[in-house]
Amino acid sequence: MERSFKKEVELLKLGDGERFHGEGILAVTKAMLQSGVSYVGGYQGAPVSHMMDVLADADDILDDLGVHTEVCANEAGAAAMLGASINYPLRGAVTWKSVVGTNVASDALSNLASAGVKGGVVVVVGEDYGEGSSIIQERTHAFAMKSQIWLLDPRPSLPKMVDMVEHGFRLSEASHTPVMLELRIRACHVHGSFETRDNRRPEHSRNNALPGPDFDASRICLPPATYAQERHKIETRAPAALGYVRDNRLNEMFPGDLDDIGIIVQGGHYNAALRALERVGLADAYGESRVPIYCLNVTYPLIREEFQEFCAGKRAVLVIEEGQPDYIEQATHVFLRKADLQTTVVGKAVLPMAGEYTADVVLQGVTDFLAEHAPPGLDGDRIAAPLATARALQSRAREALGAPVPTRPPGFCTGCPERPVFSAMKIVEKQTGPFHVSADIGCHTFSTLPPFNIGNTVLGYGLGLASSAGVAPAFGDKRVISIMGDGGFWHNGLTSGVANAVFNQDDSVLIIMKNGYTSATGAQHIPSTGTNAKLEPVDMDITKALKGVGVTWVKSVYTYHVSTMVKTLAKAMTTSHKGLKVIIADAECMLAVQRKKRPLEARMLREGKRVVRTRYGVDEEVCTGDHACVRLSGCPTLTIRPSADPLKTKPVAHVENGCVGCGLCGEVAHAAALCPSFYRADIVRNATRLDRWIERLNDRLLGWLLARRADG
Question: Are the beta carbons of 554 and 510 closer than 8 angstroms?
Answer without folding.
Answer: no
